[in-house]
Amino acid sequence: QLSNVESGGGLVQPGGSLRLSCAGSGSPWDYYAIGWIRQAPGKGREAVSCISSSGSVTNYADSVKGRFTISKNNAEKTVYLQMNDLKPEDTAVYYCAAESLWNCEELPEPSIYDYWGQGTQVTVSS
User: In this predicted structure, what is the pLDDT of residue 101?
Assistant: First the structure.
């Protein structure tokens, strides 16, 4: 019904930047809120950002606020996560996920999302 494909991960030094992309397919993509969720080795899932279907509402985890920016392009059916000033503790697999009934007034728990991508690895290391 709805699928997401993440890309843009890789290896970067502390203080560097990466831009992750989440390409959606299926129907109707522009009715869904999109979140970015990460999972570090040995840790549970952590919601890091959310953007409403309209793109007008965004939220961030305190750990990334001021460093990460979420945005979307409806024509391309793509959501982006610009990550700046990366830290070793940002190392994780990053997933994008979709939910049709959430407006991102608050950052949701990862469990509310219905559709998940396969993830992309981000490694921050010297």
Answer: 85
